[in-house]
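Exercise: predict the fold of this chain.
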Amino acid sequence: NESIIDMFGFGSSGQTGQLYYSGTYIMCTNGGTIDIAGISADNSVTFLTPTREGFQFDGWYDNPEFSGTAYTQRQSSGQTQSKYYAKWNCEVTFDANGGNGTMASQTVTAGKPVALNAMSGMTWADGYAFTGWNTKADGSGQFYGDGALVTFDEPTTLYAQWSNAAAVIGTTEY
């Protein structure tokens, strides 16, 4: 869901609510919003900070992979068109789901793959072992192994899954 704000023209006329010096700036807010009423005419053309509930804005990038430098203003007065992408971070929180202890949340870039942090700091009663994470406490959601490569588009809570390590999985005859 990409929101594009195409901001045009201050020029020398100083028209309120419009932005431009040498072209068009397309700001792909990636689900966020920008209050363009606050735009003012100055030679630096400083980019506004968008907002998105539950996310932390992490800069404007000139590519959708968010590689390189985050920009805060236009890069040259000779630009005729520029397109910038908002990078959003969100938190993945880890719930012990009846177990003991806590694990620090993990900041991830929304929509980009990342390896989950390895489980640490949580335990269950003796005889139980950690088996992975699930998006539902009862295990009916999406399952992820410890350290799995995942992509989240929104803040997410993962619930520890536990199994009785002493449970009989099968039998072997000797």
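Check your answer against the key: The chain has a mean pLDDT of 78.
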